[in-house]
Design goal:
alpha+beta; 4-stranded mixed sheet; 17% helix; 35% strand
């Protein structure tokens, strides 16, 4: 019998607008990676304001993380996210 590892899942949450630097070009989001119910790591993602304004931005960030595991930082790191890389 072969036991397979459950698929890693991601959870993304954009920082509240009150915490956003109005002069900055990026919006920040907290991303958490889960293996089953255990959190593996948490890091910050940066994306442009226009991409963050998308209605499905948080779901697209989660999908981007699934498609680009090699670009993800270690615990507590930061990654620049380009949602245009997602092919629908």
């Amino acid at each position: 019998m072969t036991f397979s590892k459950p698929k890693l899942k991601f959870s993304a949450e954009l920082f509240p607008r009150e915490m956003v630097d109005e002069a900055g070009d990026f919006r920040h989001c907290r991303i958490e990676e889960f293996d089953g119910q255990d959190m593996v790591r948490a890091f910050v993602g940066n994306l442009t304001r226009s991409q963050a304004a998308r209605q499905r931005a948080e779901r697209d960030i989660e999908r981007w993380c699934e498609l680009n595991p090699g670009k993800l930082p270690a615990e507590g790191g930061t990654v620049l996210i380009d949602l245009d890389e997602i092919r629908r």
